[in-house]
Amino acid sequence: MTLEDARAACPDILLVPQSPHLYRRAHNALLAEIESVVPIDVIKSIDELSCRLDPAQRTEPLAIASRIKATVAENVGPYITSSIGFAANRHLAKIACKMDKPDGVTVWHPHLLPEQLFTVPLPDIPGVGSRMVRRLCAANIITTEDLYRTQPKQMRKLWRNVTGERLWYALHGYEIEAPQSKRGMFGHGRVLPPDVRTPGKAREIARVLLVKAARRMRREGYYCSGLWLWAEHRAGRWSEGISLPVVHDDAALLAAFGNLWAKLCKVLGPRPALFRIGVTLYDLSPADRRQLDFLLDDDSERQRWEAINRAIDELNTRYGCTICSVGFWPRTSQENIGGKISYTRIPNAEDFW
Fold it and tell me: Which of the four pLDDT bands, split at 50, 70 and 90, describes residue 329?
C-alpha cells in the first residue's frame, strides 16, 4: 500500500529506511538452509523459489516440508514462516503454495487434479492479470474450470502469443518451461529522498546509478551502444537517449551522461525539484562479438580507458568496496544506491559497494 494509505490504516506507524543489503543476507541464509534439505532448482525472486524432488523424496512431501520448516526455524529463526506447495510442475506448485499462507503446506497429487485446481479463483492463476480476466470474461471464460476446458490454440489466441498455450499445458500438468529471455538492458532507478531533490545532489545520485549499471554490464560481459536518462520532476516527466560507439568504460558513459544532464537542467524550470531519477544502458552486444565503427578512430583511447576500468574493478573486488572510481564517489549513505531488490533480480554483493 502507499504511505498515505498506511498512515490512514495505522496512524502510529513507525517508518524506517529499507535495508536491501540486509534482506539479501537473509535471503542467502534461507537458501543455504533450504538447500541442505532439498536441491534448489530456480530462484524466482527474493521470497520465491522452486525445488526439484528426486523420486524417493516424491513419496514423502509432507516430511520434506516439515524438515525445511524445522531447519529454517532452528538455524534462521522461528519468525520466518513459509508456504510450500507440491505439484507436478512449477506453475501448479506455485498455485498450490498460495492455498495455505502464511505457514502451510499443500500437496496436489496428480491423481487428485484437476478438481483441486478448480477451487482457485481465476485471478489467482499466475499469468492471469486483471486485464486478462476481462478479456477471458468477454470470451465467456469465467472460472478456472472454464479456463482448464479451453483448447490450447484458443488460449494462444486469447493471449495473442504463445504464453497462453504454455499456460494450458502447465495447468494440465505438463512441464513446459519458457525459453530463457535475452538480456536487453542494464539500468537503475531511484526515488529521491527529500534532502537530495536539488539538481546538484540528484546528479550525484544519478552518476552513482550509472557507474553501478556499467559495473554490472562489465561483470556480465556486455558492451552497450546507447544511454537513456529519465527523471520525474515538478513539471512532469523527462527522458532522452543518446547513441554511443560500442563501449562499456566509465569515461565514455560519464561523458554521455554529462551531455544528457545538461539537457535535463534546461527543462527543470525556476524551482527545480527532482523526485525520481534513472539510467538505462541499452542496445547491448556480447563482449566477444564487439564490432568497432571504422569511421570512428578512437579504439586506442577506448582500450586505454578499458584497461583503467579493469584495474579499478579488480581493486574494488579485492577489497570488497569502492576504494577507486573515475571521478566523484560518495563516501557515506551510498551502499543502497543501485541495490534495489526487484521482483526478477536479487542484487549481488557488488551492487552495494
Answer: confident
Burial of 325 (0-12, 13-18, 19+ CB in 10 A): middle
- CA distance linking residue 213 with residue 235, whole number of Å: 27
The model's pLDDT over 158-208, given as tens digits with 9 standing for 90+, comes to 999 999 999 999 999 998 877 777 788 999 998 888 888 999 999 999 999
Q: Write down the residue that cell numbers 503446506 correspond to.
A: 105
d(CA 23, CA 46): 8
pLDDT tens sequence across 184-195: 899 999 888 888
Using DSSP's 3-state secondary structure scheme, residue 332 falls into: coil
φ, ψ for residue 233, nearest 5 deg: -135, -175
From CA 55, how far away is CA 168, in angstroms rounded? Answer: 25
Which of left, alpha, beta for 323 (phi over 0: left; psi -120 to 50: alpha)?
A: alpha
What letter does residue 204 receive in the DSSP assignment? Answer: H
Burial of 286 (0-12, 13-18, 19+ CB in 10 A): exposed
Question: What CA–CA distances, in Å, run from 215 to 94, 136, 211, 296, 352?
Answer: 34, 43, 6, 24, 12
| Alpha carbon 232 to chain centroid, angstroms | 21
pTM: 0.80
What pLDDT does residue 240 have? Answer: 95
Q: Which helix (H) or strand (E) holds 287?
A: none
Between CA 303 and CA 221 the distance in angstroms is 16
The dihedrals phi and psi of 189, each to the nearest 5 degrees, come to -135, 160
> Are the CB atoms for 148 and 118 separated by under 8 Å?
yes
Other CB atoms within 10 Å distance of the CB of residue 264: 22
Nine-digit cell string for 31: 537458501
Strands 236-247 and 105-107: unpaired
Q: What is the dihedral of CA 206, 211, 215, 217, to 10 degrees?
A: 60
- Grid coordinates representing 150? 479451453
